[in-house]
Specification:
453 residues; alpha/beta; seven-stranded mixed β-sheet; 15 helices; 38% helix; globular; binds magnesium ion
């Protein structure tokens, strides 16, 4: 279903271009028009310079529409998601552009179950937006705007889900790289409460993200890695701009992609549970399947995007989900990615196993991955996909929930059309680097061949 403004994670754009007060007021009015009169909205924002004006603009739309507004302050996205459920609100609004650079901002719209609204609801809001429909009320129906601080409640819910006494007894040390964003408000405090000695870097809020940018790419987390080594930390964690993701580093200074950490969570959380379903996007490493076999579990694949993972977890009553970008979803808390929850669970795994993070990672199967892209006009994408599925030689399994994934005994190729650019992205995995490169080339050839047909 094509949408004009909502993307994979809410509405995002550049300040002064798409994102202006006028646009936000009109979009806020459209969202308010989908709600019942007298409903409640929880609102929070990240630390970007543009967040206050967006928050004020959208707040005025809700208040003018007879909606009650509760402001939870400058906080991580998952805290707003927690607050929607905790306060039994109808909708949540998080003002953020997550990991995007400082010139971006936007809004995530959260449903009453704490998960971002689905595509049908997004489409409905856009339709109302296009019609410029509003539900403004007379003065007698205007509701109140209140501010509350739910940081303690949020941290307490997370701590209620891990073995606090066990973690305390281990006297761990951790480095938190907050990336100058809202993660610095929560994670260091949370870790201190469970007896962990915390070394925070890039901890002060700054909307320009001067420390290391807002995207926690493992290869740029050099300062975190060096600090972990220098202070002999048991682990290190870095968040993105709205702290829903967590990228981990070990005691030796090695920093890992999410593929490794989510497999670790799958292994050490689900092996103690009866329900061993693990929900993850189709682009995740085969390691999650190997772990599922090892613990007698099951992997449930979804299209790429956190909403798909969250919604699938509810559908399948799954406890755990993960993404290779460092997103971890834990249903006993809320089935959305949450960097602070992931951090508390990592501390618990280290405390329970008594092993170092580097040795736990080494126990996981290792694969080589390759990524590439190839040009393809947008109007050809569907035809190309069909052609590949019809004509490719048989793989052990072919999954087509998002692109084409060809699975072999020792790895896979995923050929996936980009949602925003005229390209196909090709991801591969194999037991050797040579094989992974060979597969990427094979994937590109499949698209080229189909393009010529
Ligand atoms: Mg994020």
């Amino acid at each position: 279903m094509k949408r004009k403004y909502f993307g994979t994670n809410g509405i995002r754009g550049i300040i002064g271009e798409l994102i202006t007060p006028g646009f936000i007021i009109r979009m806020g009015s459209a969202i308010a028009a989908t709600m019942k009169k007298g409903g409640t909205v929880v609102i929070g924002s990240d630390a970007r310079f543009s967040s206050p004006f967006i928050k004020q603009a959208i707040s005025s739309s809700f208040l003018a529409s007879g909606i009650e507004l509760i402001d939870v302050g400058t906080v991580p996205t998952p805290l707003v998601q927690f607050a929607v459920k905790y306060l039994k609100a109808d909708i949540g609004i998080m003002v953020t552009a997550s990991h995007n650079p400082p010139q971006f901002n936007g809004i995530k719209v959260i449903d009453n179950d704490g998960i971002e609204i689905d595509i049908t609801k997004q489409k409905k809001i856009e339709e109302i937006y296009e019609k410029e429909h509003t539900s403004y009320t007379s003065w007698e129906e205007n509701k109140t705007l209140t501010s509350i601080n739910l940081r303690e409640e949020y941290i307490n819910q997370i701590l209620g889900l891990v073995d606090v006494e066990l973690i305390k007894s281990k006297k761990l040390k951790a480095v938190v790289d907050a990336g100058n964003s809202v993660g610095g408000i929560i994670t260091p405090n949370l870790l201190k409460k469970i007896g962990i000695k915390v070394f925070t870097i890039n901890g002060h809020l700054d909307g320009t993200f001067p420390g290391r940018g807002s995207e926690p790419e493992p290869k740029i987390l050099i300062h975190m890695s060096e600090t972990a080594k220098a202070v002999q930390a048991n682990f290190a964690v870095a968040h993105d701009g709205d702290a829903d993701r967590a990228i981990f580093g070990d005691e030796l200074g090695e920093v890992y992609y999410g593929d490794k950490s989510i497999a670790l969570f799958e292994k050490w959380i689900l092996s103690y549970q009866k329900n061993k379903k693990f929900v993850t996007p189709i682009s995740s490493s085969r390691v999650v399947e190997d772990i599922a076999k090892e613990i007698g579990g099951e992997v449930v694949w979804t299209p790429v995007g956190c909403i798909y993972v969250s919604r699938k977890m509810i559908q399948e009553s799954a406890l755990l989900g993960g993404e290779e970008n460092g997103g971890l979803f834990y249903t006993p808390h809320i089935p959305v990615r949450d960097g602070a929850m992931a951090t508390a669970l990592m501390a618990e795994i280290l405390a329970k196993t008594g092993k170092s993070l580097s040795s736990l990672i080494q126990e996981l199967p290792a694969y080589y991955q390759q990524k590439d892209k190839i040009y393809c006009p947008n109007d050809q994408k569907e035809r190309i996909m069909h052609h590949i599925v019809e004509n490719v030689e048989k793989a052990v399994e072919t999954i087509t929930i998002d692109g084409v994934k060809l699975i072999y005994e020792d790895g896979w190729i995923l050929i996936r059309p980009s949602g925003t650019e005229p390209i196909f992205r090709i991801f591969t995995e194999a037991l050797t680097l040579e094989k992974a490169i060979e597969r990427v080339n094979k994937g590109k050839k499949l698209v080229e061949k189909a393009l010529r047909k």
